[in-house]
Amino acid sequence: MLIVKVYFMKYFKILWLGLFPVTISSGLFAQETVKDVEHVKVYYEAGMYGGWPANNGIWIWGNEILVGFSKGYYKDLGAKHNIDRDKPELHMLARSMDGGNTWKVEDPGKTGGLVPHGYFMAKPRTDVPQQQVELQTESINFQHPGFALTARSNSDAGESRYWYSYDKGHHWRGPFALPGFGTPGTAARTDYITDGKDKCMLFITAAKSNGKEGRVLCVKTSDGGRHWSLQSWIGEEPVGYAIMPASVLISDHEILVTVRQKEGDNSFISSWSSVDNGNSWKQLKNAADDTGIGNPPAMVRMKDGRICLVYGYRADAESIQHKSKTSDIRARISSDNGKTWSKEYILRNDGSGQDIGYPRVVQRPDGKIVAVYYFMDDQTGRERYIGATIWSPPPSGKE
Fold it and tell me: How many domains does the chain have?
């Protein structure tokens, strides 16, 4: 048996309370800035860049939470992602054993796992061996108590691979290749629903017919991952793009999916419902009509049946400077399975630029929401870091 050593970095924790609670109107939705929240630093390192939990995944077992993110070197590139393209990008994990209050960082590459292939945002790491694709010959047990799966890609129209774990992410098996499903290429991120021991649906992005990003599809396996097939497209091919789906299971045959979308200059989050277990989809009202420069959704179905949606709002530096807009982490709640949504809850609005968001979200056993994202703020400085917000959502009927 492989003996694994886990390497930790010191955790960081910062608490803010009282983010100037106000209620304002924005378009069709009211906003409320939440004051009773706790903000924690999951990963921060001077001179480094932490980014994009949405590209990696989050998993929870009781009060144990595991989240993936990218680590690179900071470089001032203006309004762009300030990660040095000429230095390595590492795919990391952070683990909390106390419901997100404190975190320790793990490098799975040091133990032979989660070393993605090719060039994505920055250069591949060279300090560990590159992983070769394996053939999926054994069926995955999607009901294993320590199960986790993560899917990654190497471009917007590339090749997607996945890994899985039976011990809460301490060891990873893979990578295994996903098919192209007849598309010019795929850009899978981690979003899946399991249905028994052998069945799983993945919600991924594929390139459009012209090779550009992107449109969303649902793929499935019924034999433990040995074979994957296209189940359905979610919506028609867009003129702009539809990418980065987030799904929740409503019942044994109902699924809600929200999608990062852009048409023209408008960035928003669209919403789709299936009542036949992913075979067909009906578009609902947008979950968010405006996400600024654009950000993906994250969702969790809460213990009381309501759905919590978390997303970033990216404002440009000029608007932030002139105080006409703020870069935020926002949330909404649906009490009717995504048909309608509450006002926006502003979990934090102190972003110092547009390079923020890409959240993941879980609910703790005590009912509190833990949203993990990447962020930049004046108090911290130039670096981008991984942050978490711990929030008590309003009671049912008080949204």
Answer: 1
C-beta neighbour count of 209 within 10 angstroms:
10
283, part of any domain: yes
CA-based nearest residue to 170, from 97, 268, 231: 97
CA angle 343, 347, 352 (to 5 degrees): 120
CATH number for 97: 2.120.10.10
Residue 70 belongs to a domain: yes
Domain that includes residue 131, residue range = 8-391
**Could you tell me the pTM of the whole model?**
0.92
Domain assignment of residue 1, yes or no:
no
Widest pairwise Cα distance in the chain: 59
Task: With CA atoms as reference, report the closest residue to 331 among 380, 371, 382, 276.
Answer: 371
Mean pLDDT value across residues 348-373: 97
Nearest Cα to Cα of residue 13 among 137, 101, 108, 89: 101
Q: How many CB atoms are located within 10 Å of the residue 368 CB?
A: 16
Distance from the first to the final alpha carbon of the chain: 50
What is each CA distance from 285 to 22, 44, 126, 136, 376, in whole angstroms?
A: 26, 37, 46, 39, 31
Contact 81, 120 (CB under 8 A): no
Percent of the chain with pLDDT over 70: 92
> What is the spatial distance between Cα 38 and Cα 99, in angstroms, rounded to a whole number?
12
